[in-house]
Each structure stands twice: as structure tokens, then as C-alpha cells.
């Protein structure tokens, strides 16, 4: 990540990784309390261009990410700590669902 940031700029730190590793059928999850973090937004744009399903976790407004993502999970708050706490919970719930589906628990 440091090399990407140094060589291309931190706005592309996640986008470059998706360019290298993202494949059609993958899922990319972008997390931003405002929904406007440029580096996360750029990554979701790359995801869409590569037919990677793009999920955005944001605060109440959804920011610009809501217009790029295939699915936006908006936390109904404007308070950063509350949004972050809910993003953590949402991540755990997603992991639990994926594990149940993959291993038929």
C-alpha cells in the first residue's frame, strides 16, 4: 500500500489493488462514514468497471458512494463514532452470513 501511495497517490491506494486482484463475480466492500472518501470511491469505480459487485457502507447520506455502489448500506446517523460502531457490527453480520452459506451451518 505504501508503494501505491508513494508512486500513484493515496487516492488510488485501493483502486490499484482492485485493478490487480478484482475479478468478475468478486465482491468489494467500501467503508466510509461520509460516503465521500476519494480513495474508497475510486476503488468502487474500478470495481464496477471490472464487474466486481460493489457494496458501500456509509453514514446516513450515502455520499457519492451511493451513486456508484450496487448496494449501499447506510447507517442512519451523522455521528462518526456511531457510524463506525455500526459498520463493525455490519461487517460481523456479513461474515456470519457468508460462513453459514459457505459451510451450510
Spatial order of the strands forming the largest sheet = 1-2-3
| Tally of alpha and pi helices | 4
Compute the CA-based radius of gyration.
Answer: 14 Å
Ends apart, CA distance between termini: 35 Å
Structural category = alpha/beta
Give the mean pLDDT: 94
| Binned strand content | 5-15%
Order of helices and strands: HHEHEEH
Q: Major β-sheet, in short?
A: 3 strands, parallel
The level of helicity is 40-55%
The total beta strand count reads: 3
Low-confidence stretches: none
Query: Per the principal axes of the C-alpha atoms, what is the gross shape?
Result: globular
Topology overview:
Layout: H1 2-8, H2 15-21, E1 27-31, H3 38-49, E2 53-58, E3 71-74, H4 80-103
Parallel strand pairs: 1-2, 2-3
Describe the structure.
With 105 residues, the chain is of the alpha/beta class. Helices cover 48% and strands 14% of the residues. The chain contains four helices and three strands. The chain has helices at residues 2-8, 15-21, 38-49, 80-103; strands at residues 27-31, 53-58, 71-74. A three-stranded parallel sheet has the order 1-2-3, with helices on one face. Helix 2 (15-21) packs parallel to helix 3. The chain is globular. The model has no long low-confidence stretch (mean pLDDT 94).
How is this structure best summarized?
By secondary structure, the protein is α/β, with parallel strands linked by helices. It is built from 4 helices and 3 strands.
